[in-house]
Amino acid sequence: MKFTLPLIVLMSFLLSGLATAKGSGHFNPNPNCNNPSIAPLTLGSERTYKYFPLLANKRVAVAGNHTSLIGSTHLVDSLVSAGVRVVRIFSPEHGFRGTAPDGAYVPSGLDKDKGIMVVSLYGPARRPTAEQLSDVDIILFDMQDVGARFYTYISTMTMLMQEAARHSIPFIVLDRPNPNGHFIDG
To answer: Do 116 and 85 meet the contact criterion of CB atoms below 8 Å apart?
Structure first.
């Protein structure tokens, strides 16, 4: 009897540890899954060159912000230096430069560094107008997010995708994979 209570407590700890290890997600044993400890993580923006045939002779809009980088170079700079015709930038909450505070009004305007019109999708209008899409042939979306549904970047992407579909404009998401490897959760 003296050892029954400690044995029950010990078994409870062991079982709760197993439940925690397996309850919130599971290990994906698929050997074809990219393992960041084996292979480097490659972002969609780092493979932009593969999309150049789709962008050739097109008027391109970039939905991006301060996280839209290829190494230390902004995606817009990389595209322009490669000869891609970027005609519009769509910016989310915090703005194209990422300097606006949470929930703050983000105005549209000409970007001084790029000389390209930046259309805020975090102001009175959360969607681009038909006029703002009239000279766009294709949209590239590249923003790092935390992967939570209640953050605004995924909403920005959804509404922009809906408008692109409504106007028959191709939409390319430059994916940013989860570096969490084989762990699947959610």
So the answer is: no
For the four alpha carbons of 140, 144, 149 and 151, in that order, the dihedral sign comes to negative
CA atoms of 118 and 128, how far apart (whole Å): 11
Q: Is 38 part of a structural domain of the chain?
A: no
The H or E element containing residue 46 is none
pTM equals 0.71
- CATH number of the structural domain spanning residue 82: 3.40.50.12170
- Token pair 């084996």 is at which residue? 38
The answer to whether residue 21 sits within a structural domain is: no
Domain extent for 71 = 44-173
Structure tokens at 50: 């593969």
Instruction: Determine the Cα–Cα distance for residues 48 and 73; give it in Å rounded to an integer.
Output: 13
β-pair type (117-120, 109-110): antiparallel
* Residue with the two structure tokens 């430059």: 174
Q: Are 126 and 29 in contact (CB under 8 A)?
A: no
Q: Number of structural domains, the chain?
A: 1
Mean pLDDT, consecutive 10-residue stretches, the chain (186 aa), reads: 58 50 48 58 73 93 88 90 95 79 85 89 87 96 68 81 96 75 58
Locate the DSSP E strands across 128-181: 138-142, 171-173
